[in-house]
Structure formats: C-alpha cells, structure tokens
Amino acid sequence: MTSLHAHNKAIVANSESPFVKLHAINFGDCQWTKGFWAEKTQKAVDVMIPYMGDVLCGDIGHALNNFKIAAGLKTGEHKGMYWHDGDFYKFMEAKIYAYGLSKDAALLTELDEYIDILSKAQEPDGYLQTQIQLDPDADRYENRKYHEMYNTGHLFISACAHFRITGQRNFLDIAIKHAELLYTIFFQTQNITADLVLTKLKSWDWSSYTVLWVTKST
After folding, report:
1. Contact 133/76 with Cβ under 8 angstroms?
2. Most buried in the list 37, 72, 176, 206, measured by CB within 10 Å?
3. pLDDT at residue 191 above 50?
C-alpha cells in the first residue's frame, strides 16, 4: 500500500483526488508533543471533554437523557435548549478526536454506547430531533426556532468524523438515514431553498458520495 492510499482516516477525504497537490494525512499521525498546544490539547482530552461528559450525560445537562427518553429507555420530558441535541453531537465529535489522538479503546466503547441510544431514539423514517419528538405541541420543520437544521448539521459533521477516524458505520448510518429523510421532504418542495452539502467519504473498501441537504425556508 502506497503512502498516498494509506491515508484513509484523514478528516478530508482527498487521498485519491487528482485535483489536489497536498493530501491530508490520517488524523492522529501528526501530534503536538510539547509546548503550548500540546498542553492545551492534553488538557482538553484529560479535563475538558470528561467535564462536558459529566454535564451533558447527567441530570444537569440532560442532553443524553433527552435521547434516552426519545428511545424509550427513560421516562421524563425534554429539558434544555432547542439546540441541545447539537451540543451533544459536538461533545461526541470532541470525544471522537480524542480517540483519534489517543486510540483509547474506552473512548470508543463510550461512543458506541451513545450511538446505540441515538439509534433507538431515531424514528423509523430517519427523523431525530428530541426537542420535537418529546414535545406533543411541536411539529417537524414548522419553525426555525427549533434549530432542527442546526442540530442536523452537527449530526452530519460528527458522524462523518466518526466514520473517517474509526472506520465504523454505526453513526454514519444514522446520519445517512436522516439525510435521506431531508431529501425526501425538501428536494421536491418548491418553496424551499436547498443548499447542497456534498461530503466525500472514503474507506479501504467503501467509496461513495453522501448528499446531505441543508435547507432553509424561503
């Protein structure tokens, strides 16, 4: 395997692109070893990310609880801001990068546990927005104040990073299922402006383009 084709865990999937001169390397292949940024990076891995986990996965932040309730694993009501799902996806993304740097198997196990909950919370048609699912008075995509597209964007980003770094599809499949729902709803609706976000995903044995539609009301 050449060095060019070995870079299949880079965040930017351009290892086989004929249009770039500088190809991205695998995440974690280059790391800060000393100095200011090395210290800040390690502080994030050792302190900041675990602290955010304590907040978001507990009763104070309630973000993971929202997913558990939507999954039928817990009783209760939605708590937090409308963009709380997105905050949890960003936390997951940070933990994914921490795994990419440290290769700590415990981090991957924790991520798999979260992803399993998300999978159970996701509706059969792909919808996944706890602030709507747990509110009987709210309807899907009726009002931008509910931050559905904001949350969706962070779901896509986090899931793509997870796939790129781990090679696992469990998180990616949730994102694709949700993206397919958005395509079904918005692509054929004339009063919606759809901005196409094309994310190229590569692995050793799988190659495709996943079309993610970020939409906004006109």
Report:
1. no
2. 176
3. no
Tokens of 81: 């801001």
Residue pair 172/162 in contact by the 8 Å Cβ criterion: yes
The end-to-end CA distance of the chain, in Å, is 49
Q: Are 211 and 196 in contact (CB under 8 A)?
A: yes
Q: Which tokens is 115 given? A: 């992803």
HEC string for 28-43: CCCCCCCCHHHHHHHH
d(CA 164, CA 187): 27
DSSP 201: E
- Which amino acid belongs to residue 18? P
- The pTM assigned to this predicted structure is 0.83
Residue position matching structure tokens 């970020």: 214
Closest to 118 measured CA to CA, from 130, 106, 101:
130
Can you read off the two tokens belonging to residue 96? 């994914």
Q: Find out whether 68 and 117 touch, Cβ atoms under 8 Å.
A: yes
Do residues 144 and 217 touch, judged by C-beta distance below 8 A?
yes
Closest by Cα among 207, 99, 84, 218 to 155: 84
Q: Express each pLDDT in 22-46 by its tens digit.
A: 888 888 888 899 999 999 999 999 9
How far apart are alpha carbons 170 and 160 in whole angstroms?
Answer: 11
**Tokens at residue 157, please?**
């980003």
